[in-house]
Every structure is written in structure tokens, then in C-alpha cells.
Amino acid sequence: MKEVVVLSGKGGTGKTSIVGSLAAIAQSKVLADCDVDAADLHLLLQPVTQQKHEFWSGQVAVIDEEKCTQCDLCQDVCHFDAINDFNVDPISCEGCGFCFHICPDEAIIMRENLSGHWFISETKYGPLVHARLGIAQENSGKLVALVRQQAKQIAEKQGFNYIISDGPPGIGCPVISSLSGANLALLVTEPTLSGIHDLERVIGVCHHFGVPAIVCINKYDINEDNTRQIEDYCLGQGVEVATKIPFDNVVTEALVEGLPVVEYSQGKVAQEIETLWQRISRAL
Amino acid sequence: MIISVASGKGGTGKTLVATSLALSLKDRDKVQLLDCDVEEPDAHVFLKPIITRSESVSIPVPKIDEAKCTYCGKCAEVCAYNAIAVFPKHILTFPQLCHGCGACSYLCPEKAISEEGKEIGVVESGYSDSLKFAHGRLAIGEAMAPPIIRQVKEQANNVGMVIIDVSPGTSCPVVEAVKDSDFCILVTEPTPFGLNDLILAVETVKQLNIPCGVVLNRVGVGDDKVEEYCRKENIPILLTIPLDTEIARLYSRGITLVEGMPQWQESFLGLLDKIWEIVNERGSGTKR
Q1: Which of A70, A261, B6, B238 could lock onto B166 through a cystine, CB 3.0 to 4.6 A?
Q2: Cross-chain residue pair B15–A135, CB shorter than 8 Å
Q3: CATH assignment of A59-114, among 3.40.1060.10, 3.30.310.170, 3.30.70.100, 3.30.70.20
Q4: pTM for the full model?
Q5: Residues B176 and B209 in one domain
Q6: CA atoms within 13 A on the CB side of B129
Q7: Which A positions 204-223 lie with beta carbon below 8 A of chain B?
Q8: Is the residue at B95 inside a domain?
Q9: Is A148 in the B-facing interface, judged by CB distances under 8 Å?
Q10: What gap in Å lies between CA B278 and CA B185, rounded to an integer?
């Protein structure tokens, strides 16, 4: 069983649209939406939820006013400036428990935190594991790890060949959690200067964690000079450019219909995504 | 005044709006742009600032003096992030997991733990003409963006306008960047993805008690559900930007909208006037 995770560095380059189409093309796979703080894959795959679970993670400090003697020690030691006027700001609190351990009056309790939910759903393309991080919550990396672990269990139990994971933008905590131990990263980029800048950083992260990468240049015809620059850069980095997808409004039209673009149109975009899956399965 | 530019969904045009807003205003007011998307900072690609200062960002991680350590296990017990493991005659630290809270060194009965700075990124500052600029960069392979965001925000001066470019999403880096703003612009696009993520972003800024308004980008394809939602929720649509290949081309070359199409400056100044109105109204409302 092999896992490909789709990343991009820069947001909005087309990760989820492409994963939706790969879901429709690939056989024998589990889908995982690892963009837990702005998950969108369900909008293309129309899942029917079969299991819903709570995600309890981390703690938040709460001060018991009755016991608190306002000695100020907790405010002094908190590295996150989360305590003001003997009140804990739950959004700034990182749940370290430093205040809880040092309070001489035992006036601080650590409360378990419901950080979100995760789901196992059925779609017409196969099982989907997805999640919803609570608003303004932390621990997105842990939730991503949980989603991937569940996807892996389903794949193993049911004998599927692939896990296709839709990753988050950026290069930080949830990206690292999506990437570590995956077999391949598909990096979706666009030929803009900011797209190139961000691609370079996400290739750096793949190298850092030793995960092989291939690149898809989306909307390549928006700026063909930049597309060539990406191709040259990838060549220098030893990273294959697997496909170039043209800009086409059908991608948005399909999205409005709630369909993967390969199910909506048989044009050039759909053909390129078919080629992309061949390249991915070969690289895996 | 501090205005943050956020979005939920990535790639909707946050940086386009933040840079053009800053440039439109710079002849009228003192303006500072802080790029707090420290995982993928891009505003410099458009503003091409001259960087005059660079400072490293580090978080305190534990350094164990094994000569003093008795392997009592107190540090591992108090660490909420499992960043320390203690064995009968050995101790291991995992700096990648450490949040730098300082509990272990403070609570070690043998005073065997000191705090050592571990570099996780840099903050660079400078200017682009009369515009002041700062951004942060998370080092490759590092996970924790919020400490860098905090340090970028420390660059904010208290005069004039501060515009904050935020990373996509709704979790801790977004909260860290947006909190303490007077207003948050949410940039989205008229698609189901744009709407889904806008709803999440609206909930986030509501939780932070920050007023918000929407900039709707790439209007022309897609549907009108975002507009419906905004009407229903009473969220003002402050500006719409059409789907236009010329705008996309300028963007791809790293040229800001107001530099490539100066006629947009007026629209961005209008956007700002609407924000002033909302913020002032709200200010007088709370005074009453």
C-alpha cells in the first residue's frame, strides 16, 4: 500500500480540485483530507458520513477565582502571555501546564479540550477520512496524523493499494504531519512568481524529510516564461514535472456543480489529470 | 489602526489585496505592511523591499546538564508535549516537539535544565519607498509558526496604518496574526470552496471579536452563494474584483494591481473609507 500526499506551499493552486479528480480516476484507494482547518474535498466527493468521532487534544488552564490569592506567579511564568488579570485567555493558552504546576494555591486546573471532530465517510469513489478542527484550535498536526492513521488502517483492512491525501497549504506543522513517512509528494504549483517562491520552499521540506516529489504545473499557460523557469528549476533539483494543466473555466464550473472536473468535461484538463495519475502510480 | 487580511481558503488574493491597499494609502498616511504568512511569505515578491535588518527568531528549548541530572523524571512528567523522555540512566529531548514553555527548567529539582535558544526562523524588516515592511520566514523543516508571527507583529509601530498579510486557514497561525486587529478583511472567491472556507474564517474572527468585511475576487465564473451568505449574515462586501486575465498576468509577474492598473487605487481607498466607517461606528457604539 502506497501513499501520495498532495501539497503546494502556496494555497489555491488547485490541490483539492486535482485530488477530487484523482479520486475519480484511481482504483483501489482510500482518500484522506489532511487540510483539517479548511477542508474542502467533501464538496467534490459528496460523502455520506458513517462514523463521527470527537477529537480531544491538549488542555487549557482555568483559574479557580475562589482559591486564587492573586500572587501573580502564573502571569510571571507564562511564556505565551495567556494570563492577564488572573484570567486565562483560552486562545493564547498553549496548554503547557506550567501555571498549574507552580500555583502555590492549587487554584489552576487543566481542562481537557475538545479540539475538533473526525469522520469516516463513504463516497462513490471509495472511503474518505476527513476532519474538522474546531475554530481557532491548536494541534492541527495531531489531527492530521490521526486522519492519516485511520486512512492507513482502512487501506490495510480492506486491501486497498493507495492512499491519496489532500494536504494543507504552507510548510509548517500540519504539512510536516501530512508528509512524514509518505511515499510520494505531488506538488501542485502555478506559474506565478509567488507560486515559484513557495514551490522552492515546499521542495526544500520534501528534501528535508526525505520524501520524493513530483510537480504538476497548473494553469501553466497563464505565464509560459514562468512555466519554463519552473521546469528549469525542477530539472536542477532532480524533480520530475509530471504534467502541465492549462487554465480553463471548466474547473470552476465543475466545482460549482460539485463534481470532479474529469466527471464534468473530457477536455484537455481532464486528459492531463489522467496522465498525471499514470505518472503518480508509476512513481509509486 | 491595524487591518489584517485573511481568507480561510488559500490563493484567493490576500497578498494582492494587502499589497495594493498598502500602496494605495502610502501617499496619504504612514503605512506599514507586515507579512505574517511566515510559512510562505510572498508580499516581498511584489513590494521588492530593501531589507535593512534581519534578526533570528528562536524558542527556548531545554538543555540538560547530565552531570547534575538524577533521572528523576520530573521534567518528562510536566512536559505537555512529550518533548522529554527519561530512562533509568539516560535522558532524551525532542526539540521539534518543544513549545518553549519553560516549565521543565523551572521545575527541575536539581536545576539541571537550562534554556537554550533554538533558531526556528528569521524576521526581516526594511522599506519599499515610503512603505515600511517586515516579514518572517519559518526555517525549512520547522513546524511552529506562531513565535515568528509574534515577533513580526512586534515590529508594528503605533503611528499610521498597519496592514497584516495572514496565512490561509483558521488555526493557530491565523489566530496569532489576526488577533488585536481593529478590522479583518476576508478575501474569497465565488465558488463552493470559497464559501465553505469563508464561513470558517468568519467564525474565527467572530470568536476573536473583530469586525470583518469581504473582498470578493475573481467574480465572473462561479456562483452567487457567497453574496447570498454575506447578505444573510449582514457581512459587508467591501470590494469586488473581476476574473480578468490581465490581472492574473500582472500577478504572475509579481506586479501589484495598483501599479499595473493605477485606476484601482481609487477602489482601494474607497475600501479603506468603508472600513473606517465600520470601525468608527463600532467604537462609538461601545462607548455608549
Answers
A1: B6
A2: no
A3: 3.30.70.20
A4: 0.93
A5: yes
A6: 10
A7: 204-205, 208-209, 222-223
A8: yes
A9: no
A10: 12
Q: Among candidates A99, A94, A80, A101, which has minimal Cα distance to B76?
A: A101
Residues B212 and B269 in one domain: yes
CATH of the domain at B77: 3.30.70.20
How far is CA B21 from each of CA A6, A11, A267, B222, rounded to the nearest angstrom?
Answer: 32, 21, 38, 25
SS3 at position B35: strand
In our burial notation (b when 16+ CB lie closer than 10 A, e otherwise), range A162-171 reads bbbbbbbbbb
List the domain boundaries for chain A. 2-46+124-283, 59-114
- B107 CB within 8 Å of a chain A CB: yes
- Dihedral, CA of residue A75, residue A80, residue A84 and residue A89, to nearest 10: -130
Task: Decide: A109 and A64 in contact? Cβ < 8 Å.
Answer: yes
Per-residue buried b or exposed e for B219-234, using 16+ beta carbons within 10 Å of the residue's own CB: bebbbebbbebbeeee
Whether B283 and B157 map to the same domain: the answer is yes
**Widest Cα–Cα separation across chain B:** 71
B140 contacts A204? CB cut-off 8 A = yes
Distance separating alpha carbons of residues B31 and B128, to the nearest angstrom = 11
Residues 224-253 of chain B with CB under 8 A from chain A are 245, 248-249, 251-253
Based on the domain organization, do B89 and B216 belong to the same domain?
Answer: no
What ipTM describes this predicted complex? 0.92
Q: If DSSP codes are grouped into helix, strand and coil, which group holds residue B212? A: strand
